[in-house]
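Before we proceed, please read the two lines closing this message. Let me know whether the structure tokens fit the sequence:

…
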Amino acid sequence: MRAVGFRVNGGVEVLETLDLPDPVPTAGQVTVRVAFAGVNFAEIQHRRGEFGTPDGPGGVDVPGLEVAGTVAALGAGVSGLEVGEPIAAYLPAFGGYSEVVTADTRFVRSLRTGAGEADLAEAAGLPCVFPTAFGVLKDAGRLREGEDVLIHSAAGGCGLCGRAAGPGAGGRPGIRHGRLGGEDSVRRRVGLRRSVSA
């Protein structure tokens, strides 16, 4: 399979196209044929060396914390998913910038819903940022029922997901702070009560 990875830390110039063996799922994992991979600041930090030097197989690290695609194979003991099923997955050990990746089923969600299948391109941007936004609001922020939320720089993935995660965490997000192009249209599209420009 093809992947994008790096052998040394640095800028974008260290990224290279790699030819790696297809991964095989172990117990509790699925193999995912990747259609889309999310891009997060953590991938930049990873490449720059903020998480250490490359220590993957053969001294190569493949970035990518979140993907969407279809299940290609099931590991032992996996139930509730089937080959060909569209899914989104969080990859805490990275690896998503590849054609095929294994994912622990604890971090895999089906994209089949009562309303049909979710869009793979949109779903690829959720597995990392949505839980991050929810965790920041609920755990770190200790958000309680009925409280308002002020989210700085809400135009990014976590900020926008904070709008959706806020009610589940007990609060009423709706006040945003940051400079948004077409701010009124963004505010209306994502359902904010009010936005504040810097």
Observations:
- Helices lie at 41-48, 120-123, 129-140, 157-168, 183-190.
